[in-house]
Amino acid sequence: MRSSRRRTLGAVAGVAVAALALAGCAPAGEEGAADCGAYEAYAGHEGTEVEIYTTIIDPEAALFVESFAEFEECTGITINWNGTQEFEAQIAVRVEGGTAPDLAIFPQPGLLAKFAGNGLVAAPADVEASVDENYSPDWKNYGTVDGTFYGAPLGANVKSFVWYSPKTFADNGWEIPTTWDELLALSDTIAADGTVQPWCVGFGSGEATGWPGTDWMEDIMLRTADAETYDAWVSHDIPFNDPAVATAIAEAGKIIKNADYVGDVASIATTTFQEGGAGVVDGSCAMHRQASFLGGILVEDNGAVIVEPTDTETENGISVFYFPGTSADNKPALGGGEFVAAFADRPEVAAVQLYLTTPEWNNKKAALGGWFSANLGLDEANVADPVNKVAVQILKNATTFRFDGSDVMPAAVGAGSFWKEMTAWVAEDKSDKAVLDAIEASWPAE
Question: The whole model's pTM is what?
Answer without folding.
Answer: 0.86
